[in-house]
Amino acid sequence: MHNDAVYAYHEVIRQYHGIDPDQDKKDAQSPHDACFRAIRSEKRWLPGEKAIARSSRYSYLYARDVIQGRWPEGETAISSDAKSSLFYALRVQKSPFPLGEPIIARDSQASYLYARIVLEKRFLDGENAILQNPQTACNYAQFVIKGRWQECEPLLSRSPREALCYAREVLKAPFVQAEPALANDGLCSLLYAELVLQNRFRLGENAIIQYPWLSVRYAKNVLKAPWGVAEPSIATDPHSSYLYARDVLRGRFLSAEPLIASHSTVAFLYARDLVKKRWKIAEPAILENPEILQRYQTEVPGAEHCGKYLHLIPAVDEQDLEWFLERYTQDIQFQEY
Known about the structure:
The protein is mainly α. It is 64% helix and 0% strand. α13 (160-171) runs parallel beside α15, α15 runs parallel beside α17 and α17 runs parallel beside α19 (238-249). The longest helix has 19 residues, at 318-336.
């Protein structure tokens, strides 16, 4: 943007004040200035084409935005850069660009995109480069070869995320060679069990257990039963503990209740969905959150009086508070009668 502003300034000076008569010569020596001068004028600027033709990027831009078609004079420069060659083939020629294929074949991402979008078939010269990158190798197998590509499997077997994608989208079956790598990644182990094996993945369970929320999902979607060995891990996270109780145990999760009770929102949800009555041990935390307290009073059976009368009495222990609430409620009922 800075160079564009400088160019615009000099253009005004040249046109309206007749100063800097060498501006055309300066522009003709700079690929950037020559290219953007032509783009602004929307027509070829012959004095600058020699400079433009020295730059792969500006040769591509000049062909795309000014000539709007092939520009043989710039193709030598374009063919020296993989990205420029790829986009020249895609957006200018709209067909293969043989002169640029040697440089494209050195770049994994460019080779994959050239094969998928331009050739719409395998690009054999670029496959060695593609095999240097697990992501492009997986994409090449999925979208170009559209089937198993054995040459990429040793590479993918060391990359959990790409191995998972390859197993699900290409093999549509277990990828046994990659299972040791998958087993080191908790999320990939879970998804491999859910989406590929549709059964337990014992090798990856140690990694899954390290994350409470993954453990809950594994128990719910894969085991479809309580997972006792993971419960100590689950019990370290209040929200995961609540979900485990609700979706897996379908009952109270006693070992996690002290932690759950210390978090107002989760404590309210646990009281409403699992305890299903007033849950006194959670009320100190719930009382600190007015919005949650209001929902606790209205949605949990027996909790309607929680916190209503605390402003009337000094701090007391729980037994005295229960006695006060009972007497106060009786007085209200007597007055109404």
